[in-house]
Amino acid sequence: MPVEAFGPQYQFLPKDEILSFDELVRVVRAGVALGIQKVRLTGGEPLLRRGVADLVAMIASVSGVEDIAMTTNGILLNHHASRLAAAGLHRVTVSLDALDENVFAQMNGVGAKVQRVLLGIDSAIEEGMVVKVNMVVQKGVNDGEIIPMIRWAREKRVALRFIEYMDVGESNGWSHQHVVSAEEIVNLVGEQFAIERMDASYPGEVAKKWKFLDGEGEFGVISSVTHPFCGDCSRIRVSAEGKLFTCLFGSHGADLRAVLRDPNGGDPEQFLRTVWQARTDRYSEERGKSLLGKKAEMSYLGG
Predict the structure, then answer these.
(1) Is residue 138 part of a domain?
(2) Cβ distance 126 to 184 under 8 Å?
(3) Binning pLDDT at 50, 70 and 90, where does residue 282 land?
(4) Is 131 found in the same domain as 206?
(5) pLDDT by residue (tens digit) across 98-138?
(6) Is this model's pTM higher than 0.70 or not?
(7) Residue numbers of the domain that contains 229
(8) Are residues 213 and 276 located together in one domain of the fold?
(9) Higher pLDDT residue, 242 or 231?
């Protein structure tokens, strides 16, 4: 989160405005009734939520939830890994944009230490979780880290996903000239290693995957800028205070919290169905059109 916007004096939401664990589980149950099988805890940073391992255990107890994952910056992962695994967390995705300390600091902007993230990844692996690493590639900033990251991921045997630098939110100063395309990334890796395209693991998978022909793992690219995939999107997002979004690039969400707290007994399942069936979002396909409004920040909506 940009320190200039979220400094020491920033007033965050009061606790009673944030969905409780019980309310979040109600949302999960409603989603499962509509066919949802996978749940991901994102953020902001989910490991800042007190008792998050208890939430994982509560979600894991919901019949029909087949997979629970988390996306985290990894800074607190070493501290929480054992409790998360015991609670039922199957997979963790860690955001890691560089191995070089200076480049890492430039990308995250808050003075975090890369070694803390690497230690957290090691702990998650030791606890038996499937670990995936996301690297957002920004031209002229961390594109020199592509091959070092590939070599590190092959050694660790973790799946690395390169993500095109996206215009999420309004605060990252995005410009198309900062984008390193997925095609450029694949070509760069292909110059160093023998690789082969893999089939998608499931319909709507956002990453296009490649395997190393020597058997040492795989990597993927997410190309939402150069090759949008809005038509295959099957993800719905709920913010901390209960706003329902049908697009990562949404400007405002539907008020799910009001339904959950309706004294007359709101129906979150019907609310989810209605919002999903009415969705028209396809920001990545419409990028640049003047009709698009101000977007929610990644630190608010999650990945």
Answers:
(1) yes
(2) no
(3) low
(4) yes
(5) 999 999 988 876 678 999 999 999 999 999 999 999 999 99
(6) yes
(7) 21-235
(8) no
(9) 242
Q: What is the pLDDT of residue 297?
A: 67
DSSP string, the chain: --TTTS-TT--PPPGGGSPPHHHHHHHHHHHHHTT--EEEE-SS-GGGSTTHHHHHHHHHTSTT--EEEEEE-STTHHHHHHHHHHHT--EEEEE---SSHHHHHHHH-S---HHHHHHHHHHHHHTT-EEEEEEEEBTTTTGGGHHHHHHHHHHHT-EEEEEE----SSSS---GGGBPPHHHHHHHHHHHS-EEE---SSTT---EEEEETTSS-EEEEE-TTTS--GGG----EE-TT-EEESSTT-S--EEHHHHHT-TTT--HHHHHHHHHHT----HHHHTT-TT--PPPPHHHH--
CA distance linking residue 228 with residue 94, whole number of Å: 23
Give the C-alpha distances (Å, rounded to integers) separating 247 from 39, 76, 281, 289: 16, 28, 6, 16
- Tell me the pLDDT band of 25, cut-offs 50, 70 and 90: very high
Which of the four pLDDT bands, split at 50, 70 and 90, describes residue 164?
Answer: confident
